[in-house]
Amino acid sequence: NDYEAGLAYAKEVGKPIMIDFTGWGCVNCRKMEENVWVDERVHQRLRDNVVLVSLYVDARPELPEDEQYISEITGRKIKNIGNKWSEFQEVNFQEVSQPLYVILGH
User: Fold this and answer.
1) Domains in the chain, please, with CATH?
2) Which residues, including other chains, have CB under 8 Å from residue 65's CB and lie 6 or more apart?
3) Rg of the chain over all Cα atoms, to the nearest angstrom
4) Contact of 1 with 54, CB cutoff 8 Å
5) What is the structure's pLDDT at 72?
């Protein structure tokens, strides 16, 4: 759940990063994990070829006060980790639904 750490590690090991925008309450996310990701062929490719970072858009832990801000998109205060990842997804990939999988080079 740490994008910056995942990005740094991907650079270190020379692999692209795969961002998994997900949610604790995302039924379709669980279906993908339970029915697709468990397939050994898929699991092996994820393990061997990318650095997987799962960002939970509904995570509730509050951000430190100095990291909270007002969203330029919604005008709402971004005060928890889920808000941060949700806005990150919308701003950078113009999507608000989950699951969303994005592969980025480093």
Assistant:
1) 3-104 (3.40.30.10)
2) none
3) 15
4) yes
5) 86
